[in-house]
Amino acid sequence: MRDHAPLMRRRAVLVGGLGVALGAACGCSNSGGPNSGGSREGATATASPAPPGPAGAPTTAPLPAATPWRPGPGEVQPDVKLRAVELIEALGTWGPGGQGAAAARERVAALGLPPQLADQAGPLLPADAEAVVEVIDAQYGGILADSASVLVVCRQWSATGSTVTAGGTTVDVRLSAASPRWTVTALHPADPGPAAPQLPTLAGRVLAEPRIVLPPAAVADLRSGSVHDSVLQAMLTLAGPHSFQVSVVRSGHPLNVFGTDRPSDHPAGRAFDTWQIDGHAVVDPATPRDLVEGFMRAAAAAGSYNVGGPLLPTGGATANQFFTDDTHHDHVHAGFLS
């Protein structure tokens, strides 16, 4: 069953979404660099020193500055992703006095989108006096002729006074075709659930592996104990020959394969998506195709029955073990039966 699912990106710190800079934008290796690619444009945003510690841990470091995410070469319908990302950046970034639902609705309306979308922002609207979002990746959860799901993977820092709290989430942004630009119809933020009383052994090994980079929602998925061992073991196996960045594991992904009524493997904790391999964005046309194909084959060898990506390797243990389509032009999907 095909599962059509969808370094820190440079983001702009906007005050109240009205264009007032909160801080100087940092330089990033987004365009043209080894990480560059379509959806996140391989942006490795050097957002000033990020506050140390896990998500939710308060520090006294200043809020990082960031540059806006921009699509790069290789993207399918790049403005669809940009539309989704602009909304998430506007919702999750504000200066002093810009907190609260009313101000968030104004930021959404300034984008020409329904202001009530702010009521679906969930964890992107902490009660702090100021905040900044940095998009790590934007990948398709599905792209059809008139509708799309864009998974916007982000970090967020918020502050009241001198205390900064690091967080972040993944939002499944639903869009429909419209003129002159697609419009956003709904937001579905990740809901990883509470951490398990005891961290599962394999999850702990993955979290400690420096060659596997996980975004905040995926970290929370592992800590919840809801990710199958088959997924975790495959990640560890792939971390032997490769370093890679994961975009989505369980939460923040559509419940069904986009455009169908078939359940996705992601919400069941039986899949993960990879947007960057050995410093190269999967979506970037400059990324060696043999690198992507090698990673896909390695995922299959590690136990995935359902490996999707931007190309179609020959062979496979079953006739349909490998697949490709527009949804998977920007990431490698690996699904597992148990």
Molecular structure report:
It contains six helices and 14 strands. It is α+β, with helices and mostly antiparallel strands. Strands 8, 9, 10, 11, 12, 13 and 14 form a seven-stranded mixed beta sheet that branches. Strands 3, 4, 5, 6 and 7 form a five-stranded antiparallel beta sheet that branches. A two-stranded antiparallel sheet has the order 1-2. The chain is globular, with a radius of gyration of 19 Å.
Question: How are the secondary structure elements laid out?
Answer:
Layout: E1 14-15, E2 20-21, E3 58-59, H1 78-92, H2 101-110, E4 130-143, E5 147-160, E6 163-176, E7 183-189, H3 201-208, E8 212-213, H4 216-224, H5 229-238, E9 244-248, E10 271-277, E11 280-281, H6 289-301, E12 306-309, E13 322-324, E14 332-335
Parallel strand pairs: 8-9, 12-13
Antiparallel strand pairs: 1-2, 3-6, 4-5, 5-6, 6-7, 9-10, 10-11, 10-14, 12-14
Helix pairs in contact: 1-2, 3-5
The largest β sheet comes out as: 7 strands, mixed
Look at the helices and sheets and give the structural class.
Answer: alpha+beta
Secondary-structure element order, N to C: EEEHHEEEEHEHHEEEHEEE
Percentage of residues in strands: 15-25%
Helix content: 10-25%
Q: What is the terminal-to-terminal distance?
A: 14 Å
What's the alpha carbon Rg, rounded to whole Å?
19 Å
What's the tally of helices? 6
Oligomer: single chain
Low-confidence stretches: 4-53
Mean pLDDT metric: 86
General form: globular
Question: How many beta-strand segments?
Answer: 14
